[in-house]
Write a structure and sequence with these properties.
single chain; 397 residues; mainly alpha; globular
Length: 397
Amino acid sequence: MKILKNTTVLLVLAVILGIILGMILPESLMNVVLIIKQVTGQLIFFLVPLIIFGFVAPSIAQLSGNVSKLLLFVFCIAYLSSIGAAFFGAGVSYVVVPMLDIPQLEQGRALPELPFQLEIPPLMSVMTALVIAVFIGLGSIWVDKAIEKNEAAERLGKKNYIKPLLNQFQHIVLLLVKNLLIPMLPFYIACNFAALSYQGSVSAFTVFLPILVCVILCHYIWLALLYGLASANSGKNGWQVLRYYGPAYMTALGTMSSAATLGVALECAAKSPILDKKVREFAIPLFSNIHLCGSILTEVFFITVVSQLIYGHMPDFGTLSFFIVLLGMFAIGAPGVPGGTVLASLGIVISVLQFDDAGTALLLAIFALQDSFGTACNVTGDGALTLITTKFATTNK
């Protein structure tokens, strides 16, 4: 059937099938689902550092001009977008949260224990892969410059041999994404939603529906703002990027991980006629790890909800502003895995906002309810920032 060849349709079907299976499967069969989820998840997250290195290093090596300035620019706009989204979410929450009747979150069913655990540790962490890729990419550029100036000719020779190797490795990674990662995603997503449905998280979602709808609307407003700014900055229609992001958005909804969605995001960005190939292959993997606008917006919004529910009041704006500035920094180093943003920030949640065990537990619980939507916002927003980066790279060659 032709319809099953459409990635977006496959992912939607995986979500629906997963929810249904979680509602009807007995504990014995849920073990099978959890085993599939665990094995496919291990393989997907094993590939993530390879994807990051395989795309970032050769893409940086192919760039010309002031690459250091370009890297600084990328980090700056990712940080500004993240804290901008957080301040926007805080502003909306101060208006909306006092008007809502916030319910208590009920404990769901526990997942059955797996009969075995298959551990496939990645060769390196996501951030290690990112740093190594940046360093090797920069090193390759500096080797080119040294060869052009005839510096250290006896050691470097007359040709940069690193670039062809990086390009070949990128091609290998691309084949792994197309032939292994993308076919596995529907199974991983279906199992993920089956587990959520089995635990009762889907019914909890409906209990918190007014809050979640408000947060998701904030995501869409922020994405509209990002793509509007990107269009104005580049002089090109941002819709020519956004229109291709459907599969990446749906994948992020299912995986709840920017890292696991990276292969699909690269495929979506490659379809856009207005993104420079060299820039997108360098920027998309980088933004997937440092641009977490949706997750930060959501965390700040839910912090006000939890504070109102547990402590009877929301944090004062000065304290929350200080928290947001720090949160933007922590998010840059947060792993692109489910719940990575809130887990990375628990230290400042406790120290700056003075949350106790009950507050942090509730924050983790309700954040998990929408984690997929925050991740989808992160991934989709990367396209807008890549368009802005394309314009910056073009004008600063």
